[in-house]
Write a structure and sequence with these properties.
Elements: H1 9-60, H2 64-78, E1 81-86, E2 91-95, H3 102-111, E3 113-118, E4 121-129, E5 137-144, H4 152-195, H5 214-276, H6 285-316, E6 320-322, E7 324-327, H7 328-342, E8 348-354, E9 358-361, H8 363-380, E10 384-392, E11 396-403, H9 426-429, H10 436-446, E12 450-456, E13 460-468, E14 479-481, E15 491-494
Length: 498
């Protein structure tokens, strides 16, 4: 797109005033000429009418043999064209430059007055019937009405001279005012430009107010804005400092609490494993069932603690990737084996398909990503199948997890990747912390990968995850820091399954 050139105020203002003055002078001149023509036509029309009525009265007392002489003498003295015609349209006396035809005469008699083209050019005519006993005759007078009135030239010259003086004075006044305004605005511009320098304070300093015109009002309003911005900056910095402190304290608290909870939890799980192994003696069916509930609840609590620790590490930037050549298919096979154990007791078939695919990734985090996605699919699928498919192309290793679960409604597809947000019914929501997919998304982002959700309600969902096959050209270290939590999202949504 072509950049627009700036319009400079200093030369533009007198130019606009001059153009406006010239336009006004032209309009005044045109209106004056139009008014002159109107007045000229009115004068010609009145003269034609008066001449016709006077000649008609004169001819009433004139003998027939003298009528021609009277008409011709009147035409010569008045400079008009005169006709004495009968009501049938016959010309009795012709005092015109060009003898008209009968149709034109009839038209004039019928209209009584109007505009016509004769030997004089453009004329205004009037018809006056003779009094009795010669009422069968009528006088038609034609008075010249030129399209350009006689006073047009003087009027145009007068308007032109007046416009030159008036426009010149207005342009000088406009130039003077424009110079003053331009100077004030330029000074304000330079002060604002100095304030915009990167080494200066963000809020800047108030601009001195000079004069008492509109620019001074603008400067005062700008100073008020600067003061409000400075106050907002101070408030923002205070809030930011408190937020950073709060986030740091929260991360430290979560990490400490998770570690403190893990120690007794490991003891509980250890003792439960020992008792379930019946090393201390056989268990009753009721006792075994109670121990299995304790063991299952403990494992669930440990998974929640692991999620909290992982999220805390992500937010604090402590989690780093150890990338290497990783067989995604082999990791998917381990995840599927564990998922089959979790799916026992449900009519759900967990399957693996595809081929060996080597990605440039952290094997521990790839297992965490696939474990979260496959675990969610098994948890929400009550009947049917969960299929994990791994393949590779020239640039990416792609792992897809397809289930026959309830699907994700359109309104929830973007929310399930947020922290502490879950989809599904209330019972399934209570079974997790709502951190699994949020952590998965961040880990995928750290790998420069993508995660795509395709879902259809009551049909199922498909998560497609891709990892790069090779390191980036600018990546030279095996250990890379995590990305910030506000990094641009790489999650995509599709409303229907392919």
């Amino acid at each position: 797109m072509r950049e627009r050139r700036p319009l400079y105020f200093l030369p533009l203002t007198p130019l606009v005033v001059a153009l406006a003055g010239i336009a006004a002078a032209i309009v005044i001149g045109v209106l004056g000429v139009v008014e002159l023509r109107i007045q000229s036509d009115a004068s010609a029309r009145l003269r034609s009418e008066v001449l016709a009525v006077a000649l008609a009265k004169r001819l009433r007392g004139t003998a027939l043999e003298d009528q021609r002489e009277v008409v011709e003498r009147a035409a010569s003295r008045s400079g008009a064209e005169l006709l004495l015609v009968s009501f049938e349209g016959d010309v009795q006396v012709d005092g015109s430059l060009a003898r008209p035809n009968r149709d034109a005469v009839v038209h004039w008699l019928l209209t009584g007055s109007g505009e016509a083209r004769t030997g004089l050019g453009r004329t205004l005519y009037h018809v006056a019937p003779l009094p009795a006993p010669m009422q069968h005759l009528s006088v038609v007078t034609f008075v010249s009405a030129p399209p350009t009135p006689f006073a047009t030239g003087p009027l145009v010259r007068s308007v032109g001279i007046f416009a030159v003086f008036l426009v010149g004075a207005a342009a000088l006044v406009a130039l003077s005012l424009a110079r003053d305004v331009h100077g004030d605005v330029t000074a304000l511009h330079h002060r604002i430009a100095d304030m915009a320098q990167s080494d200066g304070p963000p809020a800047g300093q108030p601009v001195p107010v000079t004069g008492a015109d509109e620019v001074a009002l603008l400067t005062s309003a700008f100073n008020a804005l600067v003061q409000r911005f400075a106050a907002a900056e101070r408030t923002y910095r205070d809030n930011l400092a408190r937020t950073v402190t709060f986030e740091r304290d929260r991360s430290v608290f979560l990490a400490a609490l998770s570690h403190e909870l893990r120690t007794p939890l490991n003891s509980i799980l250890g003792f439960a494993d020992v008792l379930l192994s019946e090393a201390e003696g056989p268990l009753s069916p009721e006792g075994r069932e109670n121990l299995e509930v304790i063991h299952s609840s403990g494992q669930h609590l440990r998974s929640l603690i692991d999620d909290i620790l992982a999220l805390s590490a992500l937010e604090s930037g402590e989690l780093r990737l150890e990338r290497q050549e990783t067989n995604v298919f082999a990791i998917a096979a381990e995840v599927v084996r564990e998922a089959k154990i979790s799916a026992r007791g449900k009519p759900v078939a967990v399957q693996l398909a595809g081929q060996a695919a080597i990605a440039w990734a952290d094997p521990l985090r790839v297992r965490q990503i696939l474990g979260n996605v496959v675990g969610n699919a098994v948890k929400f699928t009550q009947r049917g199948s969960v299929l994990v498919f791994v393949e590779a192309n020239s640039e990416r290793v792609v792992a897809s997890v397809t289930d026959t679960g309830p699907g994700v409604p359109p309104a929830q597809r973007a929310l399930i990747f947020d922290e502490y947000r879950q989809a599904g019914d209330l019972a399934s929501r209570r079974a997790g912390s709502g951190l699994g997919l949020a952590i998965t998304r961040r880990l995928v982002q750290m790998h420069d990968g993508t995660i795509v959700l395709e879902s259809e309600v009551d049909v199922g969902s498909r998560f497609t995850i891709s990892f790069p096959r090779r390191p980036r050209p600018d990546s030279h270290r095996p250990s890379e820091p995590s990305i910030a939590s506000d990094a641009p999202p790489v999650v995509e949504e599709r409303h229907d399954r392919g």
